[in-house]
Design goal:
The chain is globular. The protein is of the alpha/beta class. Helix content is 33%, strand content 28%. The longest helix is centred in the C-terminal third of the chain and has 16 residues. Bound molecules: adenosine-5'-diphosphate (ADP) (2 copies). The site of one adenosine-5'-diphosphate has 12 residues, from strand 2 and helix 1. It comes from Aliiruegeria lutimaris.
Length: 229
C-alpha cells in the first residue's frame, strides 16, 4: 500500500517580471510506501519544494495525478488534505498568536473537535510547554520551527512532510527533530522529508528519491542507492 502516489506530475510557473516560464517539475512518477521514512534529495532548485507544496495544496499542479492515502487530490480534495501535514521551510507564523493559540487555530482549520484536540500533548512533544502563552514573534528561530512541526500534527495526519527541516538548524534542535520523527514513524506515521544533505538522508530514510532539474533520476532503498553512488 502507498501513502502517496504521484503520476506524471508537472509544474510550470508562469512567466514573471521578464523571467521566462519555469518548468519546475517535468512529469514525475513517485510512490511512497506506507510507514516509511522517505527522503526527497536534490540540489537547490531541483523542484523539491514545488513537489511538496503541491502535496500540501499550496501550489497548483500543471498536470498529473496525486493520491494521498488513496484519496485523489482532484476528486477528494478534503480527504486528501486531511491525510497530510506539512512543516514548511519558511518560518511563517502569525506574530499575534501565542504558541497555544497557533495550535488551536490550526486544529480549528482542520475541523478537529475541541474535545479531540491534543494541544497540551503536542506542546509537550515539541518542548514548548513553558512557552505555551508566549507570542510567536517572541520565539527564537528554533522554537518557531518546533511550533511549525506541532502545527503540522494537530489533525493527526497519516503522512507528515518536512521541507528541509534541518537547514540552518543547530545540532540540539536537529536531534530533537529526528527523535520526534522517529517516534512518530514508530507510531505508524509515514514521513517524507526533503534535504540536500545526502548524509542526513542516509541516516534517516528507508528509501530515497533523487530529484534533479524537475525530474526523478533515481529511487531505491537507501542501502542499495548509497551502494551505487
Ligand atoms: P511581486 O513583487 O510581484 O510580489 P515577487 O518577485 O516578490 O513579485 O515574487 C512573487 C512570489 O513568487 C514570491 O513569493 C517569490 O518567492 C516567488 N518567485 C518568483 N520567482 C521565483 C523564482 N525564480 N524562484 C522562486 N520563487 C520565485
Ligand atoms: P528546491 O526546493 O529543490 O530547491 P524549488 O521547487 O523551490 O526547488 O524550485 C524549482 C525551480 O522552480 C527553481 O528554478 C525555482 O527558481 C523555480 N520556482 C520556484 N518557485 C517559483 C515561483 N513561485 N515562481 C517562479 N519560479 C519558481
Amino acid at each position: 500500500q502507498f501513502a502517496i502516489e504521484i503520476e506524471g506530475l508537472a509544474k510550470t510557473y508562469a512567466a514573471h517580471k521578464g523571467e521566462p516560464p519555469k518548468e519546475a517539475l517535468k512529469g514525475v512518477d513517485l510512490q511512497v510506501p506506507q510507514g516509511s521514512i522517505f527522503g526527497l534529495l536534490g540540489p537547490n532548485g531541483a523542484g523539491k519544494s514545488t513537489l511538496i507544496n503541491i502535496l500540501a495544496g499550496l501550489v497548483r499542479k500543471s498536470a498529473g495525478n496525486v493520491r494521498i492515502w488513496g484519496f485523489d487530490h482532484d476528486v477528494n480534495p478534503r480527504q486528501s488534505r486531511a491525510a497530510i501535514g506539512v512543516m514548511p521551510q519558511e518560518l511563517n507564523l502569525d506574530p499575534f498568536f501565542t504558541a497555544r493559540a497557533a495550535l488551536d487555530v490550526q486544529a480549528g482549520l482542520y475541523g478537529v473537535p475541541k474535545r479531540e484536540r491534543r494541544t497540551d500533548e503536542i506542546l509537550e512533544m515539541i518542548g514548548l510547554t513553558d512557552k505555551a502563552d508566549a507570542y510567536s514573534r517572541t520565539l527564537s528561530g528554533g522554537m518557531r520551527r518546533r511550533l511549525l512541526l506541532g502545527k503540522a500534527l494537530v489533525h493527526n495526519p497519516h503522512v507528515l512532510v518536512l521541507d528541509e527541516p534541518t537547514a540552518g538548524v543547530d545540532i540540539e534542535l536537529r536531534q530533537m527533530l529526528w527523535n520526534n520523527v522517529r517516534k512518530l514513524n514508530e507510531q505508524g506515521m509515514t514521513i517524507i522529508l526533503t534535504t540536500h544533505y545526502l548524509e542526513e538522508a542516509e541516516q534517516m530514510c528507508d528509501q530515497i528519491a533523487i530529484i534533479h532539474n524537475g525530474e526523478k533520476i533515481a529511487h531505491d532503498r537507501t542501502d542499495r542507492l548509497i551502494g551505487r553512488l
